[in-house]
Structures are given as structure tokens and as C-alpha cells.
Design a protein that fits this description.
169 residues, 6 helices, 14% strand, elongated
């Protein structure tokens, strides 16, 4: 699963792959550093420092990206799945929910629709799925849609939609 954090090049106890490090620097768009790469390339101490700097930058960008996606998703506060009472409702398929939490449905762009009476935890499960997807690098946002006789809460990015339905007949 993609966590959004690129792999770091370790220089502890070994040589740094300068070409791989240069690729990371290019991906970070550090053009000033790339323009002066020749002064870094041959010096192991500088390569070590640039490796550490690139790691800091990658982690910070990943953290800020996750914060931005969580904020724009508007999923609000909710009970974590770990606190869900699997004994009630009695017809909740725990294995199916755990399979959904693996996010395997996203590989083939399958939509998820949770259906049930009021108060059984559809929205809580939906928000837990959305948060899990956000941590995996996906983008989602919450929206409310009204269809004739029904009210839906949908979270999606245009390609994938998670829907929680309540009310109606």
C-alpha cells in the first residue's frame, strides 16, 4: 500500500547511490542544488548531508500533503473503527468491512455503498474508510446529496465514491 512517503536512501554503514539521490533531489524540484550537483557528487560528507536534507523534505511534504487532504476531505470527527461494537448491529459483516479497509476495492475503481437503518454505523464506517484512503495517498471529500425520498452522504474524488444512505422508504 502506498503511504505517500518515498523510500529514503540510507547512508549509514554504506555508500550513497549518487544517481538515486540526484533523482530524489530532482523529484523534490530543488533546482539550485541540481545546478551545483557537481560540487556535491564527489564529496561523501556533502552527499550524506544532501541525503539527510532530502529525507527531511520528503517527510515534511508527505506530512503536509496528508494534513491538506484530511482538511479538504471535511470528514470531521468520528469514532475510530477500533471502537466499533461488532456485536451490534447483528447483521454487520465484519469480514467484509475488514476487506474494505484493505482498500483493495480501489484497485479496480469499485464504488462502495453502505445501506442500513439509522444509527447502525454506516457513516462511521464510511469516514473510517475515507481516512484510511487519505492516509494511503488518495483524495476524498465529503458531500451531501439528495435523491428523491432519500438522503445520501458521499465521499469521493470524482473517480471513486463512498456512499452512506439513510432515511427514505
Amino acid at each position: 500500500m502506498n503511504t505517500g512517503t518515498p523510500p529514503a536512501v540510507s547512508h549509514q554503514g554504506g555508500a550513497i547511490d549518487a544517481a538515486q539521490l540526484q533523482g530524489r533531489v530532482r523529484a523534490l524540484n530543488l533546482m539550485g542544488l541540481l545546478a551545483n550537483w557537481s560540487s556535491v557528487q564527489g564529496d561523501p560528507a556533502r552527499l550524506g548531508w544532501v541525503n539527510e536534507l532530502a529525507g527531511w523534505e520528503e517527510r515534511e511534504r508527505s506530512r503536509r500533503s496528508l494534513e491538506r487532504r484530511l482538511r479538504s476531505a471535511h470528514i470531521g470527527r468520528f469514532k475510530p473503527l477500533a471502537d466499533f461494537d461488532w456485536g451490534w448491529p447483528t447483521q454487520c459483516d465484519r469480514a467484509a468491512v475488514q476487506d474494505l479497509m484493505s482498500l483493495s476495492f480501489m484497485l479496480d475503481a469499485t464504488n462502495v455503498v453502505l445501506v442500513g437503518p439509522n444509527g447502525v454505523g454506516k457513516t462511521m464506517l464510511l469516514k473510517n474508510l475515507a481516512r484510511r484512503a487519505l492516509h494511503a495517498g488518495q483524495k476524498f471529500r465529503q458531500a451531501y446529496t439528495g435523491l428523491p425520498g432519500r438522503c445520501h452522504r458521499a465521499i469521493g474524488d470524482g473517480d471513486q465514491v463512498l456512499v452512506s444512505r439513510w432515511g427514505g422508504r
